[in-house]
Structures are given as C-alpha cells and as structure tokens.
Amino acid sequence: MSEAHAHDHHDDHHHGPEPGIMRWIKTTNHKDLGTLYMWFSFTMFMIGGMMALVIRAELFQPGLQFVDPGFFNSMTTMHALVMIFGGVMPGFVGLANWMVPMMIGASDLALPRINNWGFWILPFAFTLLLSTLFVDGGAPAAGWTMYPPLVLQSGDSLPLLIFAVHMMGVSSITGAINIVVTILNMRAPGMTLLKMPLFVWTWLITAYLLIAVMPVLAGAVTMLLTDRYFGTSFFSAAGGGDPVMFQHIFWFFGHPEVYIMILPAFGIISMIIPVFARKTLFGYDSMVYATASIAFLSFIVWAHHMFTVGMPVAAELFFMFATMLIAVPTGVKVFNWVATMWKGSMSFETPMLFALAFVFLFTIGGFSGLMLAIVPADFQYHDSYFVVAHFHYVLVPGAVFSIMAGVYFWLPKWTGHMYDEKLGKLHFWLSTIFVNVTFFPQHFSGLAGMPRRIPDYATQFAEFNMISSIGAFGFGFSQLILLFVVIKCIRGGQPATGRVWEGARGLEWSIPSPAPYHSFETPPDVPDSEVTSAQEQHA
Amino acid sequence: MKSLLRNTVLAMAAPLLLATGQARAALELNMPRGVTEITREVYGLHMLIFWICVAIGVVVFGAMIWSLIYHRHSKGAKPAQFHESTTVEIAWTLVPFLILIGMAIPAAGTLIKIEDASDADMSIKVTGYQWMWEYEYLDHDVQFFSRLDEATNQARQLKSGIDPTSVDNYLRDVDKYVVVPVDQKVRLLLASNDVIHAWWVPELSGKKDAIPGFINEMWFKAEKTGIYRGQCAELCGRGHGYMPIVVKVVTESEFEAWVNEQGGSMTTDAAEQAASGTQVASAGTTATDAAVDAPADSAAADEGEGQSSEPVQVADAGDAPADGTSEGAAGLSMDDLMAQGKKVYDGQCAACHQVDGSGMAAAGFPAMKGSPVATGDLAEHIDQILNGKGAMPPYKDTLSDEEIAAVITYERNAFGNETGDIIQPADIADAR
Ligand SMILES: [Cu+2]
Ligand SMILES: [Cu+2]
C-alpha cells in the first residue's frame, strides 16, 4: 500500500488537473467526470423536484388553482423524464465513475475520451428537452411512457423530445460500454470476478441491461417520429399498425430500465451495510446470482405494465407468474442484508441510516409490487395512485436514498474531509419522515379509486392529497440540507483518514483521502484483507 | 380562502382526522368490495396478498429491528463471523417460492373467470372520445353520449371561484347515466375514437383500455341496485380528469321503462336471451359489427331526452334545449341559438378555446375572438366543426344539427365577433 501511495504523489506533480474551467470541459479523468455527473444529477433532481412541487401544489386541494390541465400533464411527463434520465441514471453513472476504477484497482476507466463525450452529451440533451417548455404547443404531455396515439398529438415538442431521448440513449450506452470494458479488462491481478465488490458486480450487470435496452427505446421513439412526419403507420390501426405494439416495445425497454435504476442501488447497500455492521456481507455468491437472475427475469415480465390492454389469458398468466418469480431473488437480497446485520456490531452514521431506510422502504415498495403482479387485483390498481405510491417507494427511498447513502459514504474519500454528521442525520430524518408523509397516503387514495395523472380530483380524495402535498414540500426543501452538507464538506472539515470508516474494506479504502487524481498508476496487490466477498476463506 | 384555511387546519389534524372521519365523504382507505362476485373475489385476493406481505414484513422487519436494538456497536456487541450458509440460502429461496405458488393459484382462478365474457345477457358498446363516452346498447337500439355534468364543468375551470365541495359529486357526475339492469351479465365492448382511454368503475369491475382500432371486452354483473361512479383511467390528454363514468343499476322493470323512454326497444332477441341465456356471444359479435358500420344515425332522435328518471342535479344539465327536434324547424331565434350555443360552447369547446374565446396560443388552440374562420367564410366554419381539423376533433357524430348551428351562431356573435349571422339547423343538415 505504501508503494502505491508514493506513486500517486508522484503522479500528482506531473499530470494533475488543468486549471480553470477547461479542466471540466476537457477532462478525461474518471473522478472529474464522476463529479460532473453528480452535480448534473443533483441539478436535475432540483429541476425535476420543482416540477413535482408544481404538481403537488395543484393537487393540494380539489379544484384547479394554479395551472392549466395541459400544463399539468406536461409537468407529470417532464418530472418523470427529468428524474429518470437526468437524476437517477446519471447519479449512478457518477458513482460508478468515481468508484469502479478504485474498487478494482484500475487507474481510470478504459475509454476516458468516450467518458468525456458521454457526459457532455447530457447537458445538450436536457437543454433540448427542457426547451420544449417554451415551444408552440407546450412541453410533452403524454406521460413519460409516450404512448401513441396521444403522444402524436403533441405540438412542436415531439421531435425535440425524441432527439433528446436519442441523445440520452447514446450517453447511457457509451457509459455502459465503458464500464463493461473497464471491469472485464482492467481489474488488478488477483481481483477475480467473484472477488469483485458487489457495487462493481451490480454495475456490470446493469451495464449489460443498458446496452440491451436503450437501443430498443431509441427504436420505439424513432417509429413515433416516422409515424408523425414520414407517413408510416407503425402505431396507427387506421394504417394497419397497432398502438399496443408501442407499449410492448416501450416496456421491453421499460422493465429492464427499472432494474437499471435499482441494481446499482442494491450494490451500494451491499457495500454499506457490512461496513457499519462490522461483519462480512452474508451470502456474497447468492447476492451475485440473485442480481443476475433479476436481470434475466427483467426481460420476460414487461407486459405486467399493460395488463389492461386486453391480452390473451395465457399471456396474462405467463406475465403474472414471471413477475411473481422476481420476488424470489429480490427476497434473497433482503434476507441477506438482514442476515448481515444479525449479530453484527452496528453503528448508525448517516450512510448506514440511509441504507437501513432503504431496506425498510424498498421492501414496502417490493410488497406493493408483488400485489401489482396479481393480475385480477392489478385491474383495480393499474393507473391508480396505488401504482404511483409503489414506484415512488422503490425509486425515492429506493434508488434515490441509495445514491444519497453512497454520497455520504464516499464523500470523505472524495473530498478528504468528514461531512457534518449532525446535519447529515438531520437530512436523513427529515427526508425519511417526509418521504413517507408524501407517498404512504397515496396507497390509500389509489385503493379508494383515484386515477393517476389527473390535475383535479373528486372531493373524497382531498385529505390524502393534502397530506401528500405537505410531505412533498417538506421533502423538497430538506434536500437543501444535502446541498449545504456537501458544499461544507468540500470546503473543509475534519480530515478523513484513508480508511474513513472503522469497518471499511476494499481497495478504494487502501489509498489516501482525498483519493489521488490517478488512484492506481500500477496495478495494486489485492490482499485478502481488502476483499469484501469473503472469498479469502475459500482460498 | 376560507376553505384553504379549513383544509390547512384539517391537514394539521390529519392523524386525528383518520380516527374521527368528518363532514365530507367518509374517508376511504381500502379497495371497495364492490357489488359483483368478481369484485368481491378480487378484494379477497387483495387482502390475502396484503396479509401475506404483512406476515413476511413482520418476520423480516422484526429480525432487523431486533438487530438494530441488540446488536449495536455502542452496546459493545462483538460481530459474529458467519457469512454464509447454503442451507439457509436454500430455505429462503424455497419458502418464498412456495408462498408465491399459494398466491398464484387463486389469482389464476379469478383471472380466468374475469376473462370469460361469454353468455352475456346484454352488450353495450362503449366508445371513448376526447373527452366523453359514447354508449350504444346493442340489443336495445339506444345510443347516447355521456359527458361531465355542467355544475362540475363550471366549478372545475381554472380559478373558477366555485368551491368544489359545494358541487355534488364533483368530477364524478355526468349528464346522462349508463343504466343497466341488476343481476344481468352486462358485456362492454370497448373502442375509442381517438386516443387510448380506460373504462373504470371500481365497484363494478377492474379497468380495461379502450383502444382506437381495436375492440376490447369486459363484463360485470351487478348484484345491487344503486349508482356507481368511476372515471377514465388512462391518460388521454388535457381533459383526462374530466371524463367520469356513472352507472345506474336498476331493476329489470325500471330498465325496461328506461329503454322505452330512450326510444329503444327490448328486442325479441334480448328478451329471448334473458330467458334462455345462451348463444349470446355470437349474437353480440354480429351486433357489434353492425354497430361499427352504421353511423350514429339515431343520435338526433335519442337527444329527445330521458332525464326524468335521473336525480335532480342532472335535470338542468346541458341537454335541456334539445327538446325540439331539429328536423325541418322553421327557424330558431337568435336568442335561443345564442343561449344554447353558449351551453354547447362552454361544455365542448371551452376546454381548448377557453370560455372567453381567447384560446391558448401556447397549446395551439386558436382564439375564437376575431378568428378568421369564425368571422369569415361560413362554409369553412361549418366544415371545421363538422369534420375537425388537426388537433381539433370532428363533431358531426357527437353534436346534433341544432347544437352545431347554435354553437356556430354563438361563435360568430360572441366575444366581440359581431357578424350578425344566424345559422339554422337546416344549414348544417345541408352541409353534412
Ligand atoms: Cu416492470
Ligand atoms: Cu380518457
């Protein structure tokens, strides 16, 4: 370790970052790009969050108080697109950028220029997307799922939306290829596949999912484009096409997409819990196999998003059974996390708090997911607020909490300073309370019959909506604490040790904090003591 | 403002509120049991899975909370060394698998029942429009459109100043109810005229999409008379929140009376079916085809109203003026046309063109005020309303000659468009 250490300092002198703004524009360094991704993601969370607040303000009470219904639909549509493609996905890519090379003992990602390109596409893609707010006909308002024929009624926003999606797709695919190539080629000697930290494993599998399905989405939206402007009828029954076919194609992308947004989260949680339980992750191998089976199953369950389109019973049965099956590997993961905590020696720093909340609240989202899989009941739940509650439980206290957990967990490694633990805990408690205040009542309004994507509602839903809106504002404003904590931590604070956390193991913790600009110039040894998979016991 | 204050206070007291309930509608927390065998079965499935989840949750969260309390670093807990156990892993793969099978079997049974729409007693073709529903009773020769009721329509406008709680069944009422007999298997054939909609009345059944170019099927058999409300469940544009569904389940004889009132007939076919209950599926299918081919020629006749059996708050809604038949009317006065025109305009057109005719430039809805069409060539104006243009829907099948004449007269003389033109139903009939 001391050898690697000396090397890094040496490198610092010779090729450190370029000064000024050009550092960020021209950078090919995985850490710089990781930082850019994280700030981009945070900005998008803020923009998407403001859209959510417009929605919740309008839904605060029955009647139409603030916005036109068309604009309301634009808000729900844009909120989802911005949060999914701008917030969650770049957030995970940012964490991968920072951590994957350090975890496998590589100097950088395998394709640094592609990495730069992949990031810098994003600001353009989202400028294009957000510019639709100002075009004739308003921003896209047909839902993020873009179902025809409705989406074909969009104004001038349609081509902009489609090209923005294409650009996001290119960015995701470059990022994914980069991660696959890096993981498969640049591991330090001795870092066998089954010794890789789980974050690396889950990202490897996620990257394959991205490569498999982003082109499918690109194809689907391109067909929309030609239907609208070039006289094709892929999705128009009048021309011999089929609007439902779009839904099949979209969800063939869409279901793996939801795992793209949760597998890296599983990885992060699997990294954090053992550290703060001071105990080796339980069932490492089964975690890997569970991740792989979830990824496989994700390709054969897509139609559970569209049970109400009228499919043959046999198809409905198939998709119901396949979907229920996903509960098995997902359950294994949750059980393994609990078993890791069991008889551990737990402490509750902010990353651990977020990880624990993840396990609780993601599991609740998993339960409602299981309920949604039951087709006869889904006929009632579908397109109601029950679904809204379900996917927000897996996405906010699920995916988003895992990103926040990761940020707190690795922030000392990135900045060289400890963050303010008190403020971190305050941020955690406010977020956790408000996220539940926001989304839990939505289960009830959905069951009672409130459809999603409506700007106004019957008066019997008033109470739950009001509670939900209060929670949403609380949650939104609590995130300013995160911003403050991060800025404070960047600017100073108690110096962090290389190890940072008492129970931390892994190559990323074997180098100093802040991590040197090039972490591992020469491949490090992988001592058993730094392997998190417990493979050392086998050896 | 007052209501805002009250609501804020209510929200503060939310937990209390849950316990006490309050003046407004009773707080619904759970899926309704509904009034059909299927909805009750689905409710049962829902509760079964819910309790299974609760049980699993108790075990998992229980273990976790136990650890959180007893296996703390601050309490000096020493970490154990175990990190693997094949037996345990196999157990917690297999046990959930078995539980899932336990859920899947009853779910599959119910699903197969739901998907069996054969042997229906009667069929209604339901067509979704942006933003209303059309109902055609295939066995009874009854057809009508069902739209958001006028009281809600006024209150739901942006900053209308009308308190929604003062409107009965705000957003959940229509001008014309779907009336069906109790204890009969009613089959719905779902279609759409424009984009995808979904028909959903939770107490009668789950939802099903109405897709342009396709016909979907669903059914229900209500066991209790009463009024059941729901709404469109699939995002269908600006008016998605404004296409409610109201089904009135009545006794057999009330249904017959209603059909007669609508100018329909209890066809021999239907009567036989009610008696024998067989061979309906094929009859229904041919009826569907016929209905698809035949344009809604009975529309004008059906406008001849039958609201009297409906509750009071709908009696004054929207359709009242249609009491004169449009055929060969000698000519309606400007005042009559303007009055009716305003109703039609506010109900049908204002969603896009706005009540004051100012349109919404941003969304591509032109202003009516000073519009070159509404102040220019009459033929073009009529053609635009009959056949639609671009994002504007055609109205030839959904409005009567008289309604179209009225709305055109209105557009040409309201909002400061002072053309002085009076358009008569006959002009529209000629243009068709
Ligand atoms: Cu899915
Ligand atoms: Cu609709």
Tell me which oligomeric state these chains represent. Answer: heterodimer
Question: Poorly predicted ranges of chain B (pLDDT <50, ≥5 residues)?
Answer: 1-25, 270-329
> How many helices of chain B does DSSP assign?
14
Number of E-state strands of chain B? 10
Structural class of chain B: alpha+beta
- Main sheet characteristics of chain B: 5 strands, mixed
Q: State the end-to-end CA separation of chain B.
A: 49 Å
Q: Which series of helices and strands of chain B comes N to C?
A: HHHHEEEHEEEEEEEHHHHHHHHH
Give Rg of chain A in angstroms: 23 Å
Keywords:
heterodimer, A: 539 residues, mainly alpha, 16 helices, 67% helix, disordered N terminus, B: 432 residues, alpha+beta, Immunoglobulin-like, Cytochrome Bc1 Complex, Chain D, domain 2, 3 domains, five-stranded mixed beta sheet, three-stranded mixed beta sheet, 14 helices, 41% helix, binds copper (II) ion
Short description:
The complex is a heterodimer of chains A (539) and B (432). Chain A is an all-alpha fold and 539 residues long.
Note down, in words, how this protein is organized.
The complex is a heterodimer of chains A (539) and B (432). With 539 residues, chain A is mainly alpha-helical. Chain A is 67% helix and 0% strand. Chain A is globular. Mean pLDDT of chain A is 92; it is low at 1-13. Chain B contains 14 helices and ten strands. The longest helix of chain B is centred in the first third of the chain and has 34 residues, at 37-70. Chain B is elongated and about 90 Å long. In chain B, the strands form three sheets. In chain B, strands 3-2-1-5-8 form a five-stranded mixed beta sheet. With 432 residues, chain B is an alpha+beta fold. Chain B folds into three domains: 29-64 and 87-116, no CATH class; 122-281, Cupredoxins -  blue copper proteins (Immunoglobulin-like, Sandwich); 315-431, Orthogonal Bundle (Cytochrome Bc1 Complex, Chain D, domain 2). At the A-B interface, helix 4, helix 10, helix 11, helix 12 and helix 13 of A face helix 1, helix 3, helix 4 and strand 9 of B. Residues 128, 131, 197, 232, 236, 240, 243 of chain B line the site of one copper (II) ion.
